Amino acid sequence: METKNKLFVSQVVKKFDLKIVVNEDYTDREIPSTGIIRVGFELAGEVLFKEIWSIVYFGSKESNYLNNFSNSIISKKLRTIFELNPPMILFGKNFKHTNIMLKVAKEFNIPVVKVDYSFFELNFTINSYISQKLSNQTMHHGTLVDIFGIGVMLVGESGVGKSELAIELVKKGHIFVGDDAINVTRIGGNIYGSAEESTKDFIEVRGLGIINFSRSFGIERMIDSTRIEIIIELIKPQKEEKIIFERFGKDLNYKQFAGAYVVHYKIPVIEGRSIADIIETAVTDYKLKMSGYNSAQAFIEQLSRKGK
């Protein structure tokens, strides 16, 4: 089931440690829409909408435009933007009319924040965070880890050992994201996963029960979210079952997941095998293929040369 999240100014301020210059008591305002926008049309008097739902940014471009007017006109133009009721206003270090802006801001309940980011940097930091938070989410059962910088979703039937495997991978130096309930978000063609809020920071180990992950292994072994690039399906074969597993590995297999196609490995869970080592090898193989090297193809070429 898809769910639509709500996002508030307070969450963005906390996430990026932003400094509110005025109206710090109004961080409970909702951010209804993605994007950090510039308001060139509105400053010029072309008001297209009755309200602005995205965060507004003022930088050098807006400052250069406003330089053409007297302080009273600048104040009037800025008041027009505040009357459109954006959830939050950001201004950069190159915006030169902050005194007038802050004076106008005191008439409204809109937080105003000074940022050191350029508009370009904002789109890769704050706006990316907003886009992820406001995208539709689906809940998936599994365990999510980050291995060599690649997000890996471990799936399989209950009791196959996903949580125990995650602990083993963390002890080998990898990063834990979440266990059991994973919120999955698609942004464009990319899939992102994070722990569901109610289970965040906890992991269930059969025979031990519920363990607080950060207290047991250190907060530095955790991250909030990761881009999911690989799904590893753990399968415990039964004697009477015939399951075909990959033997050659020339081509990557893909699985449709949360509306996109993600690389998919099936790994049999057999006593005596180090599944953590095999998963590390799978991730390494994936990274090699993404960089243009294919071990299976190289093997074929080697056999071909030997046969000549």
- Number of domains in the coordinates? 2
Q: What percent strand?
A: 25-35%
Provide the helix percentage.
Answer: 25-40%
- Please provide the ordered H/E string of secondary-structure elements: EHEEHEHHEHEHHEEHEEEEHEEEHH
Derived from helix and strand composition plus strand pairing, the structural class reads alpha/beta
In DSSP terms, counting alpha (H) and pi (I) runs of 4 or more, how many helices?
11
Distance between the termini: 57 Å
- Reading off the top of the CATH hierarchy, the class of the largest domain is best stated as Alpha Beta
Tell me the number of strands.
15
Poorly predicted tracts of residues: none
Q: What is the assigned CATH homologous superfamily of the largest domain?
A: P-loop containing nucleotide triphosphate hydrolases
Strand order of the largest sheet: 7-8-13-10-9
Q: Give me the CATH fold name of the largest domain.
A: Rossmann fold
Q: Please state the overall shape, judged from the principal axes of the Cα atoms.
A: elongated
- Biggest β-sheet description: 5 strands, mixed, barrel
User: Over the alpha carbons, how many angstroms does the gyration radius reach?
Assistant: 25 Å
Oligomer: single chain
- Residue-averaged pLDDT: 88
Judging by the overall fold, what is the CATH architecture of the largest domain?
3-Layer(aba) Sandwich
